[in-house]
Design goal:
The protein is α+β, with helices and mostly antiparallel strands and about 210 residues long. The chain folds into two domains: about 70 residues, 434 Repressor (Amino-terminal Domain) (Orthogonal Bundle); about 120 residues, Umud Fragment, subunit A (Ribbon), CATH 2.10.109. About 20% of the residues lie in helices and about 30% in strands. It contains four helices and eleven strands; from the N terminus they run H-H-H-H-E-E-E-E-E-E-E-E-E-E-E. The strands form three sheets. Strands 4-5-9-6-7-8 form a six-stranded antiparallel beta sheet, with no helix packed on it. A three-stranded antiparallel beta sheet has the order 1-2-3, with no helix packed on it. Helix 2 crosses helix 3. The chain starts with a helix and ends with a strand.
């Protein structure tokens, strides 16, 4: 039976390969540790101790103790992540899959999960905002949590929508149109023709850096 440090190292190497395409620098950034520190772990210059193992699991959304499993077993993904704040209080996040938005909210990024900061359904997924076209709701780089079970349209909320004749969905702000119906707005983008059929895929439940409980 392998020593616990060897089992943890096997898992760390597996994570670097599967989640970061073998790039230790990217892994270091995700773990908020220096590239040198990760290099030392991978090259057995430093053992993966208890605190480091738990930090890796928490940072990558793995179940507590996952790195200590026999290396032949699959790493267990945590469904929840509990964070202890500086003042000693706790906050629990639900881990939701990150998806490729261009794949219609269905294609999960390999091994990637994201902690949702508010209560959400089992149909919630995370995508990354790439532009500033949805301000003031979102900025480029924000994580957007889309609940696919919330499709009722509310004025001035952000939705993932599918436009008739297009293969890729879009994020748009719903604006109630005078006389009835909806406009779908994003700055710098042309308005969608009223004759186009729109399918709402889900509502964004996290707006920028503020929690939205509406």
């Amino acid at each position: 039976m392998k020593a616990i440090h060897a089992v943890r190292l096997d898992h760390l190497k597996q994570l670097i390969e599967s989640r970061f395409e073998g790039n230790a620098g990217r892994a270091a950034k995700a773990l908020n540790r220096s590239h040198t520190f990760i290099w030392q772990l991978v090259n057995k210059k430093r053992a993966i101790g208890e605190d480091t193992a738990r930090h890796i699991e928490q940072s990558l959304g793995l179940a507590w103790g996952a790195l200590d499993q026999d290396s032949t077993g699959a790493l267990r993904q945590a469904t929840q992540l509990t964070v202890i704040r500086d003042d000693g209080t706790q906050q629990t996040f639900r881990m939701v899959p990150e998806v490729e938005f261009t794949a219609g909210l269905n294609k999960k990024k390999r091994g990637a999960f994201c902690p949702c900061p508010i209560e959400c359904s089992g149909g919630t997924v995370a995508v990354k905002v790439l532009t500033d076209s949805l301000q003031p709701h979102f900025r480029a780089g924000d994580d957007v949590f889309i609940d696919k079970e919330q499709r009722e349209i509310v004025d001035n909320k952000v939705y993932a929508i599918q436009i008739e004749g297009e293969s890729e969905p879009r994020l748009r702000i719903a604006k109630h149109r005078e006389g009835g119906g909806w406009e779908w707005f994003a700055s710098g983008s042309p308005m969608i023709e009223h004759t186009k059929k729109i399918v709402v895929l889900g509502r964004a439940i996290y707006q920028g850096h503020k929690l939205n409980h509406d």
